[in-house]
Amino acid sequence: MMPEKKDFPHLNEAALALIERTDEERIYAIREGSWLGYKDAKRILARMEELLTYPRITRMPNMLLVAPSFNGKTSILERFMSLHHPDLDAEGEVTICPVVMVEAPPKPDISDFYTRILDVLMTPYKPTASTPEKYSQIKRLFRQMDVHMLIVDEIHHLITGSTNRQQEFRNAIKSLGNETGVCMVAAGTEDAYNAFNTDPQMSSRFTPEELPVWKPNNEFGSLLATLELRAPLKQASNLKDPPTMLAIHTRSEGTLGDMVDLVKELAVDAIRNKVERITFDRITSLRWVPPSKRKQYKRL
Fold first, then answer.
1. 1-15 pLDDT, tens per residue?
2. Cα–Cα distance between 201 and 174 in angstroms, integer?
3. CA distance 259 to 253
4. Which of 114, 174, 246, 274 is buried most deeply by CB count within 10 Å?
5. Phi and psi at residue 88, in whole multiples of 5°?
């Protein structure tokens, strides 16, 4: 029998359906997580939808998505990909792939970049193929598969190469956009600004969108309230209560991914310790290494 909402008003329907499951099942659901559609994420997704349906013109609009590490950038890109799966055109016997997403190589290597695109498109290619051959194959496949958008994540890797290699890689991106007519979304950390701003053509082609770190305000409180609705705990935690919200913000340092992971571990801790709610004391005492300390952190 389904538990009644009146007995657990702090939960949404999905969490309510889990509330009588075993502890391990509830912990698994908490750690699995789900999409968080906060304001900035919705704004960026809406802009990406506009770019996807943009008519093919001589100079296509592009986006540069910039965010601190672990602040939701890749989650937004993956969410967009989940909304635009490849589809088989039965008549043409070809896969229609409106969006292609790759991760930039760890250094500005054009051949490696093209290989990654071909791998994502799951197409055979000669291991010994030259860079121009790979490029020609990509252009042909983009036309055949009706690709409208190319997403390149971790674009800040661009700055790890020499000045000449960086410029060659930027030129390759520009040429690919020009010759295929696709919109491009490049995403990375703040270093992505440096990767693009040294080339006036790149900075003029890519409109920046930023995901700043979070502040302990009403929007942050609303996000915590959403996480509480989704966490199958038997008692309310009142995470948006100002002292509680500030404690979580302090420990996560305003980074979205760290905040979500911290709340998950607090919820797991609440289940395992039979408390069934996240308390202020546990927020401040749970073993948790904040983002700023992780590089210096050493195991005892």
1. 678 888 899 999 999
2. 9
3. 8
4. 114
5. -90, 125
* CA pair distance 186, 179, nearest whole angstrom: 17
Spell out the residues 6+ positions from residue 47 whose beta carbon is closer than 8 angstroms to its own.
Answer: 63, 209
The residue written with tokens 């300390």 in the block is: 293
Q: Check if the beta carbon of residue 4 is closer than 8 Å to that of residue 19.
A: no
Cα diameter, the chain:
67
- CA pair distance 280, 35, nearest whole angstrom: 26
Domains of the chain by start residue, with CATH: 5-32+214-293 (no CATH), 39-210 (3.40.50.300)
Helix (H, G, I), strand (E, B) or coil at 78: helix
Asked if 52 and 149 touch (Cβ cutoff 8 Å), the reply is: yes
Q: What is the predicted pLDDT for the residue at 260?
A: 96
Handedness of CA 285, 289, 292, 296 (dihedral sign): positive
Which strands make up the sheet holding 62-66, listed edge to edge?
A: 99-103, 149-153, 183-188, 62-66, 206-210
* Structure-token match 């020609």, residue found: 136
pTM, entire model: 0.90
Residues in the chain with pLDDT values less than 70:
1, 89-92, 292, 295-300
CB contact at 8 A, 247 and 209? no
Handedness of CA 128, 132, 135, 139 (dihedral sign): negative
Cα separation, 256 vs 247, whole angstroms: 14
**Residue 183: C-alpha distances to residues 29, 177, 186, 195 (Å):** 36, 7, 10, 19
How confident is the model at residue 90, as a pLDDT? 61
Please tell me the number of Cα atoms within 13 Å of 110 on its side-chain side.
21
Query: How many CA atoms are closer than 13 Å to the CA of 270, on its beta-carbon side?
Result: 24
What torsion do the CA atoms of 228, 84, 171, 139 make, to the nearest 10 degrees? 160
pLDDT digit string (tens) for 221-237? 999 999 999 999 999 99
Show Cβ contacts of residue 218 under 8 Å, excluding neighbours closer than 6 positions: none
